[in-house]
Amino acid sequence: MPVAHVNGTSLYYEIQGRGMPVFFIHGHGMTHAMFKPQLDYFAGQYKVITCDLRGNGRSGRLTEPRQEIIDTQCADLIVLLNQLQLREAVFVGISYGGLLAQHIAYAYPNRVRGLVVADSFYRDDPSAVVRALQAAAAYCSWLTYYAPSDWILPTVRLSYRRWEQAYRVIRSSLLEKRPGELYKQRLAMTGVNYGRELREIRHPALCLASVDSGPNVLYMKELAAMLPHAQLELLPDSLPPGNLCQPELFNRLLRQFLDSLAVQREQQAGG
After folding, report:
1. Rounded distance, CA 132 to CA 138, Å?
2. By three-state DSSP, how is residue 10 classified?
3. In what order do the strands lie in the sheet with 9-16?
4. Which residues of 187-221 are buried (b: 16+ CB within 10 A; e: fewer)?
């Protein structure tokens, strides 16, 4: 079982394939296992990396205060890149992982080849009242994390009745959840305010949105508009995570984006 020791904790990771590195960052309450359809599909042409973030899955504990969590988790991934002797990667983030991918693109621009954000969001609201309401909602969500998974699974089963693969992965994640650390990560999201940072990201970017996710589509459209070099693609008949509800379409769109980056690299090397 590959485990990297980084920043005083341990990260479980998996790596397969050869070629341009593609680093997948999982969503809130999920683990590296959510990317099996991508690992199987892309490892034939690219070096695919997945891991469990600090505080999730098989990785070490999350003990940081909430205002340091996202910074610390992003630093963990950069240290993992160093240990794997990789200079840069395409970062693909789903949901909470999309927040980390955005942060890495801004904070570590020289380590990023391209940016893919799916079913995620950003915040650019200067209103102290709105921020206070968002924080209050996050603090009140504790029951969602500490309630027995059996209470929640019937609702999840109903919501994902058309997407069996997504349901199985979400169910497994719920049954193995680490509630205290997940709750801390939920609180960490309330500190996100990436409006100015997004405008300064110059990497090629792909934004993917599941169309059945309601307000999430609007968030992703706004996020894509903020990024100077982003394209937006919609995933029909899909709830988040789109990579599990519509894996074939997700993989095809991502493959097109990755192939375009590979062509750019070859042109730069030849020029």
Report:
1. 10
2. strand
3. 3-6, 9-16, 47-51, 21-25, 89-94, 112-118, 205-210, 230-235
4. bbbbbbebeebbeebebbbbbbbbbbbeebbebbe
Nearest to 251 by CA among 42, 47, 16, 17: 42
Asked, as a colleague might, if the bond just before 241 is cis with ω within 30 of 0, I would say yes
Locate 30 and state its tokens.
Answer: 């999920």
Q: Give pLDDT tens digits for 154-172.
A: 999 999 999 999 999 999 9
In angstroms, rounded to a whole number, what is the distance separating the alpha carbons of residues 196 and 230?
Answer: 16
Respond yes or no on whether the N-terminal peptide bond of residue 215 is cis (omega within 30° of 0).
Answer: no
Rounded distance, CA 246 to CA 41, Å?
A: 13
161 vs 164: CA distance, rounded Å: 6
Predicted structure pTM score: 0.95
Question: Which CA distances in Å does 264 have to 76, 124, 174?
Answer: 28, 32, 40
Q: What is the pLDDT of residues 84-122, one digit of tens each?
A: 999 999 999 999 999 999 999 999 999 999 999 999 988
What is the rounded distance in angstroms from the CA atom of residue 195 to the CA atom of residue 106? 11
Q: What are residue 197's DSSP bridge partners?
A: none
3-state class (DSSP) for residue 84: coil
Give the pair of three-digit tokens for residue 9.
């904790």
Q: What is the pLDDT of residues 233-243, one digit of tens each?
A: 999 999 999 99
Amino acid identity at 65: P
Residue 236's SS3 state is coil
Q: Can you tell me which residue has the tokens 């200067």?
A: 126
